[in-house]
Write a structure and sequence with these properties.
The protein is an alpha/beta fold. The chain folds into 2 domains: 2-147 and 385-519, Rossmann fold (3-Layer(aba) Sandwich), CATH 3.40.50; 169-335, no CATH class. It contains 17 helices and 15 strands. The protein has helices at residues 35-45, 73-81, 113-123, 138-146, 151-197, 204-216, 218-234, 239-253, 258-286, 291-311, 315-381, 425-428, 431-443, 465-479, 491-495, 521-532, 537-551, and strands at residues 2-10, 13-19, 23-28, 61-68, 90-97, 102-106, 109-111, 124-127, 388-395, 408-415, 423-424, 453-457, 483-487, 499-508, 511-518.
């Protein structure tokens, strides 16, 4: 709810400060005193488009400051997302300059008009101006009707839709993947076969390079190996013979000197290693590389290097590509099976959705009939006896228009008088009639999760007498649950309020200004007497009687 409102240099408001409370507060005053300006100031707090006419003539800027209190989880979550601390209340400040610029702050943190609008949608509901009435929105009209439909039916539709949506998404992904992959399928298969033929392992290039180098120089290699083997084992005095003699000489005296012991250990190791050299040299001598084998190895190395260049990667990257393509090609091979299964599930779920949506359609028709029956007595009391209402609930079987909340297009229609054609509310009802229709909806309990603060402008247009009392009593009853701000010309409505604020225009220093005054009981009597036609003894008595009736309603 709005705890306080301060307005500076805003149109006719020079500097006003108003403390507001829960309950019904009525704003009264002469025509042209500035009641609509108050509504504009409230709209400015909650993100309405800035208007240069709001800035008081001669002033540089207009300013509106509101303090609000709310425990609404949606509001607290929004402020938390904006990193705004609301532990010590919520203060909204908006400044509009004469040049048309606008700035806003929440608890001193700069914010946007969009955030203010979001806060307004949570905390504030303005009735009486066509552009602000949620009742005009098809989504809101559907919400009113759906509030009376069984929850189980609505849940079944949303769950069925979610399942169908998931199946459709999987089919779309399958088609998309398949279409994209099929364009490259032939290339992938051919390239995969080429890479598989290389029998790639990590380090293959280095291995092939070694093999090619050995093959190209086989004669030189074998000649060197033969010479080494001859010197090592086949001469009369061989390396191993000399090594054995050296070991014999050192070993016989090693015990006499530590260094000879170290030398003897190393010589023994050399002898053990020398015994392993000959088999390697002999292996080289026994090897042979024909031209075909060498050519095959060189071709394999060339193909490997070409593949690396094509894909700009190394051995490990080629192996990864092979695995990726195998997975893609395998998915293509099984895609037809997956598609057939998904299509069967799609048909089954479409039928389930149609059944669920049709059930909800029928429930909505019953809910709408019940709603209109419940509204009738309230409409009659509020001076709308001739207004006829009906709900247009049209099922759309085009699956592209299906939604999580059913397949219906819902709209409340009205006829101003019996026998006339039904049209949309916007084309039929005036601002005052729409406000009274909202009152009727509230009176029959059709609205849920209402904002903390509701303001009604023009709610009493075209009514009077006992109907005025009905309007006032309904507004007062609403005030027991939330904060209700009412701009009214009717003394019956004013008499029902918990609080009353007079809006008065005066001229000071050749400038027109408007002030707001919270009235006490005697001041309320005088104001209501004025509204009755003028202050005199008779009207004051009548005003006292009206206050007694209104405040005990």
């Amino acid at each position: 709810m709005i705890v306080s409102l301060q307005v500076r240099q805003f149109a006719l408001f020079e500097n006003i400060h108003l403390e507001l409370e829960k309950g019904m507060t009525v704003f009264t005053g002469e025509t042209g005193a500035g009641k609509s300006i108050l509504v504009d100031a409230l709209g400015a707090v909650f993100g309405a488009r800035a208007n240069v006419d709001w800035v008081r003539h001669g002033a540089e800027k207009a300013e509106v400051i509101a303090e609000i209190e709310s425990n609404d989880v949606r509001l607290l979550q929004l402020l938390d997302e904006q990193d705004i601390d609301a532990d010590e209340g919520i203060h909204i400040r908006r400044v509009m300059t004469a040049e048309g610029r606008s700035r806003a702050w929440i608890n001193g943190i700069p914010t946007s008009a969009g955030i203010l609008k979001h806060i307004g949608s949570i905390c504030f509901d303005l009735h009486g101006q066509h552009e602000h009435q949620t009742l005009m929105q098809p989504e809101f009209q559907q919400k009113i009707i759906d509030a009376r439909a069984p929850q189980l039916i609505k849940t079944n539709v949303s769950k069925t839709y979610a399942s169908l949506h998931e199946i459709n998404k999987r089919l779309a992904d399958l088609h998309g993947n398949r279409d994209a992959a099929q364009e490259k399928e032939t290339w992938m298969r051919e390239e995969s076969e080429r890479l598989l033929a290389l029998d790639i392992v990590e380090g293959l290039e280095e291995q092939l390079e070694t093999e090619c180098e050995a093959g190209r120089n086989i004669e030189q290699v074998q000649q060197a190996a033969a010479t080494a083997l001859n010197l090592f084992d086949d001469q009369e005095v061989t390396v191993r013979n000399l090594l054995g003699e050296i070991i014999h000489q050192v070993e016989s005296v090693a015990g006499h000197h530590p260094s000879l012991q170290e030398a003897n250990g190393l010589l023994t190791q050399m002898d053990a290693l020398a015994s392993e050299v000959s088999p390697y040299l002999q292996e080289v001598l026994d090897s042979s590389v024909d031209a075909a084998t060498l050519q095959h190895t060189e071709d394999r190395l060339a193909d490997l290097r070409a593949a690396k260049r094509r894909h700009n990667t190394d051995d490990a990257g080629l192996l990864s590509l092979i695995a990726e393509w195998e997975s893609t090609l395998s998915a293509l091979d099984t895609a037809s099976w997956d598609e057939e299964e998904l299509k069967a599930q799609q048909i089954e779920m479409e039928q389930a959705y149609q059944t669920a949506a049709q059930t909800l359609h029928q429930a909505r028709e019953k809910a709408a009939e019940q709603l209109i029956r419940n509204l009738r007595p309230f409409l009659d009391q509020l001076g709308l006896k001739n207004m006829q209402l009906k709900a247009s609930i049209v099922a759309r079987d085009d699956k592209h228009t299906w939604k999580a909340d059913g397949w219906d297009d819902i709209e409340l229609l009205a006829a101003a008088n019996i026998g006339e054609p039904f049209k949309s509310l916007a084309d039929t009802a005036s601002g005052g009639e729409l406000s009274r229709l909202v009152l009727a909806l509230k009176g029959c309990g059709a609205l849920e999760n209402e904002p903390d603060t509701a303001i009604f402008d023009e709610v009493d247009v075209g009514i009077g007498g006992e109907t005025g009392w009905c309007v006032g009593e309904l507004l007062r009853n609403m005030g027991s649950e939330c904060q209700v701000l009412v701009v009214s010309h009717l003394p019956q409505v004013a008499a029902c309020a918990h609080h009353q604020v007079a809006i008065e225009k005066s001229i000071q220093d050749n400038r027109t200004r408007t002030d707001l005054t919270l009235l006490d009981h005697s001041q309320r009597e005088a104001e209501i007497a004025r509204m009755l036609g003028g202050i005199n003894d008779k009207s004051l008595v009548h005003a006292e009687q009206m206050l007694e009736r209104g405040t005990t309603a």
